[in-house]
# Entry
Amino acid sequence: MADSASQVLLGSGLTVLSQPLMYVKVLVQVGYEPLPPTLGRNIFGRQVYQLPGLFAYAKHIVKVDGRAGLFKGLTPRLCSSAIGTVVHSKVLQRYQDAEQAEPGASKNEHVSSLEQVLKETSREMVARSAATLITHPFHVITLRCMVQFIGRETKYSGTLSAFATIYREEGILGFFAGLIPRLLGDILSLWLCNMLAYLINTYALENGVSMAEMKSYSQAVTGFFASMLTYPFVLVSNLMAVNNCGLAGGLLPYAPTYSSWLDCWSQLHKEGNMSRGNSLFFRKVPAGKRYVWEERRFR
# Structure
């Protein structure tokens, strides 16, 4: 119990700290660009036109809504984080209890074997999927609270009232908008990360004094690589969560009404926007597009 409480507190702290970053990322993902490109230098020192990065974007939000404006959508996101942590922990605990209750259960002789990795990854997949499924309604509300910045709406002003609004206008399915690509992205990222880490730890690294440290580094590297590969699922999920919900950020000119998440994926792929919002630093101006000041976006 104490361990779960400490995990919830730690997760809540990280959620608060990362809220401004997620807020900016979501607005960029939607395609909202309130500031025009400026002449700057890329990582190689060459002069190029760049879009405002994280800090410039955040400064603009503060100018419009004050510092508190950077934390729109924080309450439902904290609820999602806390509930997700508890559900994830409970599911894994059930697996552990069931394993200990099995007659003749014994510890695995080879902890790093392929069978052990497959078993642990499968359990983690179920735990994460359960947490995602239960907390997705809070995730949808979080995204919509953030996207309200574009049209200056107040439709989703509170967590409870947002639940009532979504149920009244969209029914139960409205709470799970964008769920499928989010689940697929999480599952693919988890399996890619763990299997790549297993291959590196088993076949690329030799036993030595710093073996444990090297394995932790390989896990971090493979996790980053997996998240990069599965980013389009995150983008599509977030866009579907706000699409055609009555907010300016989910309607034209920012997005057409997508018939499904596959339709959204197809449109983004055609436009070359599959990585939009992936980086908040050294953001390049989209090739072949011009900035439209009146719409605060590129087209």
The radius of gyration is 21 Å. The longest strand covers residues 47-51.
